[in-house]
Amino acid sequence: MRIALFEPEIAGNVGAVLRLGACLGAEVDLIEPLGFVWDDRRVRRAAMDYIDHVAVTRHADFAAFRQAMGARRLVLFTTKSESSIYDFRFAADDVLLFGKESAGVPAAVSEACDARVRIPMRPQVRSMNLASSAALALGEALRQTGTLPGDLRA
């Protein structure tokens, strides 16, 4: 399973997602342009020494990313979907795609995805933090597919 971030803007969020990927065994794809300089110390500070335990691939743009993913299913997490992640059936090779913090993804990117799902939340709030959303989504997807690392139920 992979986590993909479309044009992320906040270095600390990317660092937290890299740490998440390292801990749960998910590769991370970054779709440029980034809203910060890649060698930003805030990325490393948030990821800490975990950054050495995650595979990160940077893509020049969405077209390059889509081509690199081949036939893998792209699952977009968006507040504009009516489908709950808890009703969706994930596959072990899904790519979990998250939009940029300030604007999500453009319509063309949304349409290029195979599925669009939403994390249920209270109607009074707009959205969760990117790294929090990625953690909740990846945890559910790995749970559903029986691929949580170190699963104590085995």
How many extended strands?
6
In oligomeric terms, what are we looking at?
single chain
Structural class, from secondary structure content? alpha/beta
**What is the beta-strand fraction?**
15-25%
How many individual domains?
Answer: 1
Q: Count of DSSP helices? A: 5
Major sheet: 6 strands, parallel
* CATH first level: Alpha Beta
CATH architecture: 3-Layer(aba) Sandwich
Helical proportion?
25-40%
Q: What general form does the structure show?
A: globular
CATH topology: Alpha/beta knot
Task: Summarize the SSE layout with pairings.
Blueprint: E1 2-6, H1 11-24, E2 27-31, H2 41-47, E3 56-59, H3 62-69, E4 74-77, E5 95-98, H4 107-112, E6 115-117, H5 130-145
Parallel strand pairs: 1-2, 1-5, 2-3, 4-5, 4-6
Outline of the structure:
The chain is α/β, with parallel strands linked by helices.
